[in-house]
Amino acid sequence: MAAQETAIQSNASRWKKFLREVKAELRKVTWPGKAELISFTGVVFVTVTVVAALIWVLDASFAQILKAIIK
């Protein structure tokens, strides 16, 4: 019984320590400004669009090739 209580207290203290350390690390983070955030969001959006278009073109091409082979 006493061992279980010690384990529970140990887990609780581990979580508290973990959360304190997370909070300390988040204070060290350099957060982007509004202009930087908008710029990065634009880069991500363009990159995702280009990659999606490339996958779509490749998929359509392979589908046409497969149809030609099956006929």
UniProtKB/TrEMBL annotation:
<keyword id="KW-0813">Transport</keyword>
<protein>
    <recommendedName>
        <fullName>Protein translocase subunit SecE</fullName>
    </recommendedName>
</protein>
<keyword id="KW-0812">Transmembrane</keyword>
<dbReference type="InterPro" id="IPR005807">
    <property type="entry name" value="SecE_bac"/>
</dbReference>
<keyword id="KW-1133">Transmembrane helix</keyword>
<keyword id="KW-0653">Protein transport</keyword>
<comment type="subunit">
    <text>Component of the Sec protein translocase complex. Heterotrimer consisting of SecY, SecE and SecG subunits. The heterotrimers can form oligomers, although 1 heterotrimer is thought to be able to translocate proteins. Interacts with the ribosome. Interacts with SecDF, and other proteins may be involved. Interacts with SecA.</text>
</comment>
<comment type="function">
    <text>Essential subunit of the Sec protein translocation channel SecYEG. Clamps together the 2 halves of SecY. May contact the channel plug during translocation.</text>
</comment>
<keyword id="KW-0811">Translocation</keyword>
<dbReference type="InterPro" id="IPR038379">
    <property type="entry name" value="SecE_sf"/>
</dbReference>
<comment type="similarity">
    <text>Belongs to the SecE/SEC61-gamma family.</text>
</comment>
<keyword id="KW-0472">Membrane</keyword>
<dbReference type="InterPro" id="IPR001901">
    <property type="entry name" value="Translocase_SecE/Sec61-g"/>
</dbReference>
<keyword id="KW-1003">Cell membrane</keyword>
<dbReference type="Pfam" id="PF00584">
    <property type="entry name" value="SecE"/>
</dbReference>
<feature type="transmembrane region" description="Helical">
    <location>
        <begin position="37"/>
        <end position="58"/>
    </location>
</feature>
